[in-house]
Fold this protein.
Amino acid sequence: MFLGKGKDQCKHTSPSANKLQAREKAACDGHHTMRPVNVSYATIRRASVLLATKNYLQQSTFFRRLIENAVGGCSMNILIADDKPHMRCLIRAIVQAHGWDVCAEAEDGRQAITRAKQYKPDAIVLDFAMPELNGVEAARQISEALPTVPIFLFTFYDCPAVEEEARGAGIQKVISKSDVLTLVSSIEQAFANPAAA
């Protein structure tokens, strides 16, 4: 029903419309505006998965370093374990020439385990024949403590039997010391394919 004509005409509003306007006004009072949100269950589930993934990536040294290097961030930290000083010096020179850092060195298997837990490196290079514990036994304990850190066995004993034992201990790859230049490319490949680490 309309009362009057022309510019001054007024619309007749029903009681239900008045109630709706009152509720909208009450919702808009104060500092915040309440708006209806229609979010599907699938959207909420996707958001929760993304949040969990983000939290994991922030806590994971392996993935954090991977992302930082991909965007030109800080260099990777490598732990070197070898009982021969000249071999540790050689590995250090190769690693540093590639722009990476050596966070620590170890002279035997037990020391390698201790320093891996202490420094939490991004990658570990272990010799096979070391005092106290050999590289495979050291890798077994390190991989239990740091499961996301790739471990490389750098040795002259690169026979199939050693490679099989190394895989069972969580070692990423066995690299022959006679082919020392493949060390860097093997580490790069592990970080380029984290699913294989």
Summary: Residues 75-196 form a domain with the Rossmann fold fold (CATH 3.40.50.2300). The first strand starts at residue 2 and ends at 3.
